[in-house]
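User: Before I run my own analysis I want an independent prediction to cross-check against. Here's the chain; please return only the structure tokens and, at the end, one sentence I can use as a sanity check.
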Amino acid sequence: MGDLYILNTRCKLTDKIRETFEKAGFKVKVSTDSGVSDENLKGANGFTAVCIFVNKCIKPEQVEILKENGNKLILHCSAGFDNSPTEELKAAGISAARVPSYSPGSIAEYAVTQIMALAKNTHMSYVMTKNADFEITNMQCLLLENKTCGVIGTGLIGKKCAMKISGLVEKVLCFDVYPDNEWIKTIPNASYADMDTVLRNSDFISIHVPLLPQTHHLINEEAFAKMKNDVVLVNTSRGEIVHIPSLIKALESKKLWGVALDVFEGEKKYIFHDKSKAGFRDDPDLARLAQFEHVILSSHIAFYTDQAVDQITAKTIENYMGFVGKGTKDEKAFIC
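Assistant: Structure tokens:
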């Protein structure tokens, strides 16, 4: 019946993937509903592959629908794949592929941008001056060139972040379970350190680790207690890395200068949606977070650049072509 059923991403990625697949001669359908209801998944009946982005989640009990549809492949147009049940897919004989990396510079640039925005109170100034308020009493900024930036996780994105921030700060301290001792030599003012050292000595901290059992709530009350006062924290990795109640406690005690979260626990029902009418009424912790003037929440947009959309699309169609035998299959991109 068809080749690709796209669960609408609600961003330009949907149009780019559809156009690219159709140009290659494949039949594509985009879901009218952006959710992942049973009814929406049934719309994939007869399609070889289902395309899913990070703001969607296929539940284990929904795999039976995919099986009945005759779906053979889940195409994750993201590096993460924790939003589909790998073991259940494997048991049903359904393959899954991902985009291992795409434009790490996009996410790294966003992290550096948020550090700068918070350090320089750009977000505050923007709001105030819109109302003709040019008062500067509470607008003193932080200088970067005599500060230390901690980078937690030095995969492709963490490395890019360390490289980009290194020219702005005095020192970069990196932590990774598997340090790249050759790469670190390419940044004169960077070095590896243990986690405690990074937490205790950094003025800015940028998180770039995958979500694993070991990293779940890695930044918790104990971690905040080790940090310097007036630290700036940025998370562009996975929301569950930062324990929100502990973060709120640290903010209320004025431990932190500012926080930027492009990802946050419980984000899936918010990202890429306009929830302004309902607000955060069902999520008191997020409602409290949003009240802090030095907290920037964004909707998982660190990746969202022209280059990233192009690279995600190219790898997604490459994965499909490899699966159907019309190209070389990249086994490293296939989860099951």
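Sanity check: Residues 306-323 form the longest helix (18 residues).
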